[in-house]
Amino acid sequence: VLGLLVWSLIAATTYHLHAAYGWVMFVSLFCWILTLLFFMTYLLQLQLKFYVIPWPLVLMIYNAVATVLYLTAFVTCAAAVQPTSWRQWDYNRRAAASFFACLTMIIYGVSTFFSFRAWKGLGSNAATSQVTDHA
């Protein structure tokens, strides 16, 4: 949802006049589409059909790359916002896009952390923590 907000706020401005916002638009749209594809894959349980692919590792790598991409998009977007813009609505949308890009970057960072834990198998659920092995 946050990625959708970022690219819709940028798309509502005259982003094509500024190269910096083209990068923000690319990152936000690219990550949003890939996140949607991963979501649909897990929602439809397609990862069970493609069991050869190490899905926890793939998700961890994707989340880490998305975090770095959103870091660059956030810095680019925040640096390019000009408060003396002659179009006040563009300023407000770009400032809001910077804020939501920062939130999206943080969320992808947290997802990277949890993906790393899932990949390494560091977490356990209540069912597996109650089982003891008595021989």
TrEMBL record:
Keywords: Cell membrane, Membrane, Transmembrane, Transmembrane helix. It comes from Pachyramphus minor. The lineage of its organism: Eukaryota, Metazoa, Chordata, Craniata, Vertebrata. Forms oligomers. The chain crosses the membrane at residues 20-44, 56-81, 96-116. One of its GO terms (biological process) is myelination. Belongs to the MAL family. It is a multi-pass membrane protein. The keyword Transmembrane applies. It is found in: Apical cell membrane; Myelin membrane. InterPro entries: MAL, Marvel, MARVEL-CKLF_proteins. GO terms for molecular function: structural constituent of myelin sheath. This is Plasmolipin. GO terms for cellular component: apical plasma membrane; myelin sheath. It comes from the Eukaryota. The keyword Transmembrane applies. Residues 1-120 form the MARVEL domain. Its main location: membrane.
